[in-house]
Each structure stands twice: as C-alpha cells, then as structure tokens.
Amino acid sequence: MDKVDNDTTWRAALRQCAGTRARRWLIAVTLLLGAAAAAALGAGAAPQDRTFAALSEPVQSLMSALLPLLGILLVRDVRRAPAAAPFGPTLLAAVLVAAAVGLFGAAACALAAAGPHPWRHAALVVVGGVLVQVTAQLVGAGLGLLLRPVPVAFLATFLPLLLWLALGAAGGLREWLTPYATARHLLSGDLDARAWLRVLTVVVLWPVGLNVAGVLSRCAADRRSAGS
User: Which residue windows are transmembrane per the record (predicted)?
Assistant: First the structure.
C-alpha cells in the first residue's frame, strides 16, 4: 500500500512539471533554445569545430540558464502545501525532467555534429549534459526553498555565474567552487580523477547543500508554526 501511495505522489509531482501553460512554455522554450543553438552552431562553425563535445558546451549551458526556474516553481507548490507534504517526490520529478532535457540537448548536438572525429568522449559528454541539467534544476529547487518570491529566487540562480566571474583571478578556486567551471569539464568529456573530485565538491556545495538547507529551513518553520 505504501508503494502505491509513493508512486502516486511521484507521478503527481511529475505531472506538475507541465501542469500549467506557463510551465509548458518554459519547457518548450528551453528545448527550442537548445535545438536552435545546435542548428546555428552546426551551420556556422567550421567542420573541425562541430564535434559533439564542442557543440554540447554552449547548447547545454544555454538550456541550463532557464531550467532552474522550473525547479523554483515546483518547490513553490510544496511550500504552499500542508506542512506534511514531502519534498522527495518533487525533487525526484525535477531530476527526471532535467535528465530528459540533457538527453534532448545531446540529441540536438548529435544531429549537428560533423568533422573528422566528432564522437570523441561522446558517452561521457552525454552523461555530463545530464549532470549539468540536473545540477541546474536542483540549484533552482534549493533556492526556491530558501528564497521568495519567484523572481528573486530565479535571479539568485545567476549567483554561481557571478561567483565564477569574480574568481577570475583565482582560476583554481573556480574549479572547486562554481557549477559553471564544473559544467565545462563535464561537457568536455575529458575528466581525470581530480576533475571528478572537483565535480563532486561542487555538487555537494550547490545542489545538495542548497536543498538540504532549504529542507531544514522548512522543518524549522514548521516547528515554529506548531509551537505557536
């Protein structure tokens, strides 16, 4: 019985991802941006610059700029629900949608790829694209839990990029502290053990850290509400 209830909650959360016209437009625009960018880069770049990895970095990065807004909207639904409403199904649904966006971006880049060796590191780049979108989505969800209203939370999703710019003179710190630097590594497909450690550090700091902080903040607010 518990399994059925959990499945129903998870499916309901997944339906919420496209539950309004605004959310459907958001997903459609995100995908169209990726497809258009892949087509434009494929048509305008020299053949040697049309490898799958070279196309994936700008395409996946562009899509990841809008995707956090969906995560913010999804957790807003949970914030408005009764105190007992769980976050887990919503976060799982957000991850699945982000993974689908990453795979769509990979398909768009694959159609535009050319050159003498277009598929070098292709498998890792596909995985990297999925991880980039999942990271972006969860950063949005975490900030949506911590900040309100929605426009403020969405503007805050650009803070990691601003941090990357601010650390320009300290390139080493960029690699350990900013999602954008991690995205570039993931989408290059050329990662060693040290690079994967940097990826793990950024994941713990941003998507995991923000969502843990958001959930703890919600629990503290619930306890204060119950006590009053």
Answer: 25-46, 58-75, 87-115, 121-145, 152-173, 193-216
